[in-house]
Specification:
The protein has about 280 residues and is of the alpha+beta class. The protein is built from 16 helices and 9 strands.
């Protein structure tokens, strides 16, 4: 709640526009959802106003105080967000998966190299960093490229449900595997694919960790207007030290100012430019 109470009214209004927390700019279609993800750079799927950062669910609701009900199955907004998520997974134009600290997120293609530079894994490091169950799943996926959940469990030999889920989470967090399709009949299942098969250019692009931290911070601040202590770390899964490094790099280049410790604000000239861009984008929606 600290991140909410410390925000200025100006920053909250700025976020309403950029994060589409307004009734006049709700996300309704898969195309809307893809444009939303591309605009903000990265977003959660089903988080509500109690967590910071852009959220597809909040953009579907079109209000900043949206709260997920206890019975999500009967909530039309939650159900619509879930169906949009399935559509985005099928279309494959944005990255979707459980990333840092098991956060389920969407990434715009332009942000994939930056997140991969921080959380991705080179092939040479896999034997040391991946668990044996995760390595078993990865061997099957590299042989098959696409496979349903039940077949992946059988072919990998990882029969224990908890170990299997943990292994999948490991592979998603390392940006090695993504869901590429979801079916509900005859039973619910995901189809899993190698991430590099969907985003080969983005995942093969190399950059330093410092550059990646700066660009992740820039992406968040551009759509947030200001950020308060710990907020960037909570949204992205970065450590607070690394989030601070990214934000301070923006201050060093004049992109942001820091009026108080841990608080970063878009420089005035940049705020005006972003406001203009947001109005232009809004006029095209």
């Amino acid at each position: 709640m600290i991140a909410r109470t410390c925000l200025s009214a100006e920053a909250d209004e700025y976020r309403d526009g950029c994060w589409q927390r307004e009734g006049t700019r709700q996300v309704e279609t898969a195309f809307d959802a893809e444009r939303f993800v591309e605009r903000v750079g990265f977003a959660a799927c089903l988080t509500d106003s109690r967590r910071p950062g852009p959220s597809l669910y909040v953009a579907v609701c079109g209000r900043r105080d949206a709260v997920m009900p206890r019975n999500v199955q009967k909530d039309p907004e939650a159900s619509h967000t879930w169906m949009l998520k399935d559509d985005l997974v099928r279309r494959g134009k944005v990255f979707y998966g459980k990333l840092a600290r098991v956060r389920t997120m969407f990434l715009a293609p332009r942000m994939i190299p930056h997140f991969h530079a921080v959380w991705g894994m080179r092939r040479a490091a896999e034997p040391a960093r991946l668990s044996r169950p995760a390595q078993a799943l990865l061997r099957v996926l590299r042989r098959e490229w696409e496979i349903a959940t039940s077949d992946l469990r059988d072919d990998s030999g990882v029969k224990d449900r908890k170990k299997f889920i943990r292994a999948l989470d490991e592979l998603q967090a390392a940006m090695l595997v993504v869901p590429s399709e979801v079916y509900y009949q005859p039973k619910f299942t995901y189809i899993w694919s190698l991430a590099v098969g969907r985003f080969p250019t983005e995942l093969r692009r190399r950059m330093s960790r410092d550059v990646a931290l700066r660009e992740i911070a820039r992406c968040f601040l551009s759509a947030a207007g200001m950020t308060v202590p710990g907020e960037l770390a909570r949204v992205t899964g970065l450590s607070r030290v690394e989030a601070g490094l990214g934000n301070r790099a923006l201050v060093a280049e004049g992109f942001a100012t820091t009026p108080a410790r841990g608080v970063y604000v878009l420089s005035r000239w940049q705020r005006v430019a972003c406001d203009t861009d947001a109005r232009q984008v809004g006029s095209m929606d």
